[in-house]
Amino acid sequence: MSESCPTLRRDGDQVVILDQTRLPHEEHYVHLHDLDSAATAIRDMQVRGAPLIGATAAFGVALALHHAADDDALHLALDVLRATRPTAVNLHWALDRMRAALAPLPPSARSAAAWAEAEAIQRDDAAANGRIGNHGLAALRPLATTGRPLQLMTHCNAGWLATCGHGTALAPIYAAHDAGMDIHVWVSETRPRNQGLLTAWELARAGIPHTLIADNAAGWLMAAGRVDAVIVGADRIAANGDTANKVGTYLKALAARAHGLPFYVAAPRSTIDFACPDGPAIPIEERAGDEFRLIHGIDGQGRLQSTRIAGADAAICNPAFDVTPAALVTGIICEFGIMPPDALASLQTP
Predict the structure, then answer these.
(1) Confidence label for 5 from pLDDT (cuts 50, 70 and 90)
(2) Cβ pair 15, 9 in contact under 8 A
(3) CB of 161 within 8 A of CB of 233?
């Protein structure tokens, strides 16, 4: 695997992932050696971010077919991985691509072909990330003014941790920084998984000025004129441009519209689900209540600890995603350019 993807790499007949459940406190790598370990990594969010989930699922198929590659083994791998997480459509896109590449082959040829196809999916995502960065940079340049940094806001983590390259929503930010633009990023914490902490960790490593904020501070910052644009990723984009992303995105889109700010969604074409007509048809994952009841951090001795902030019997509603209507989206930045939400049909293959 290319060294440009530190989140996921092949190591012989195994796959090595960066365990994101331990970030930003510890960098810990895990070896995936079979179908079950790949499925667990996706389900338990050791890997997360729609493009990375898709790539990991592709490698999970390769792991599954290493010892047995008959039709039963292939179908089992596809079914097990498809059931891990419902909302991120890149998972299903990658598995459909693996099935199309492998099903016509004799079992004896499937193992090598599975590794090759998984690595191709990884390379393609990295290339798409680069193009998203360039297109997004073109959208950001006109917003810059002399005398002060361009103030950008993002939500959750859509950087290299979530993809096989430079990220989706963070790709234009990295491109702007590399181009010498003066920028500052408002990073919302993204409760309850606190994935904004991962974005802050990424940006700190890149030397990009940023400030971590509570999710509920976003609207006030926009009202106070301290934000120039919002850019987020996506886990599934419906055919009409409605977009599912980490819960809390919809509120930022509403606030951006109320204050006349551009709201961009950055995602590769593989995140567009042309079979899904609109937002209400997107399945929204409901995750375990303990993600909300517990918080995780470092204690005074530097040890990772969990602390309960709600009773074990507290009723919890924990949707992992929400849906932003297309009418609130200024443009969708993909590898083919910046698309109006109502023009996605032009990207559909015959």
Answers:
(1) low
(2) yes
(3) no
Length of the chain equals: 350
**At residue 23, what is the residue type?**
L
Q: Which domains does the chain have, with CATH numbers?
A: 8-127 (1.20.120.420), 138-347 (3.40.50.10470)
Interval 219-229: pLDDT, tens: 999 999 999 99
Kindly name the residue from 235, 242, 273, 322 that is annotated as catalytic: 235
Let me know if 278 is a catalytic residue.
no
| Among candidate residues 296, 288, 236, the one with its CA nearest the CA of residue 53 | 236
Q: What is the rounded distance in angstroms from the CA atom of residue 45 to the CA atom of residue 38?
A: 11
319 beta partners: 286
CB 245 within 8 A of CB 324: yes
CA-to-CA distance for 36 and 45, rounded, in angstroms?
14
pTM above threshold 0.85:
yes
